[in-house]
Amino acid sequence: MTDVLGRKPPRSRARLWVATILLLVYAGFVSLVTLWPDPSDLEFGSISDRVLNVLYRFGVPEWFGFDELEFTANIGMFVPLGFFLGLALPRRAWWLALFLLPGYSGFIEFTQATALESRVSSLLDVFANTSGGYIGLLLAMTMRAMIYARDRRVIARAIWERDAEIVRARQHPLPQQSVPQQPVTRREPDPATRLFEQPSQQRWQDPRDAPTERLPF
């Protein structure tokens, strides 16, 4: 069967490589932001104040303060992480992300509580991070399901069109083109043939009666 079909085409690894690289880069960024020893070096306070001022200008109510912004930021920070993880995992192993995302968030909070004195850990942050990761995972799996369904439709239509062409070719075969017969031209024998291949009834009895032919040499 392999010889008939030819060499099996290789699988595409573009999605796996791109998603894995983006996942590692973004996970490193999240680790840097959340595990930096002194959060004041990152100027979170000034950035939060600027973001809140912009939100208030767009009509966000005053009760939405720093704690609510931090909770929302924790959700949004893990959305890309869950999305890249959903793209990197095999389709049948997507459920591993259900444990990896809260495990990674729990590792961050545990490290903040045990090794970083200037950090404050909270189970609420684990809940926010996990929620954001699950949102990103849902987006990734939805996109992969849509692409998978589209690919199946494209392949099915290509097979149908191929089979339709085969059926049409069998029902309406092309007329065979007749090759015109070339007229057979009789070539005159050369002088040597005329001299030595005379019919038996025309051969001479006496060599002196033989016809005279001028040979071309």
UniProtKB/TrEMBL annotation:
Question: Which spans are transmembrane here?
Answer: 16-36, 71-89, 96-115, 127-147
Biased composition range(s): Low complexity: 172-183
List the keywords (alphabetical): Membrane, Transmembrane, Transmembrane helix
Per UniProt, the ranges with Basic and acidic residues bias are 205-217
Q: Which InterPro entries match?
A: VanZ-like (IPR006976)
- Record region (Disordered): 171-217
Q: Domain of life here?
A: Bacteria
Domain VanZ-like, by residue range, is: 24-143
Q: Name one Pfam family in it.
A: VanZ
- Any idea what this protein is called? VanZ family protein
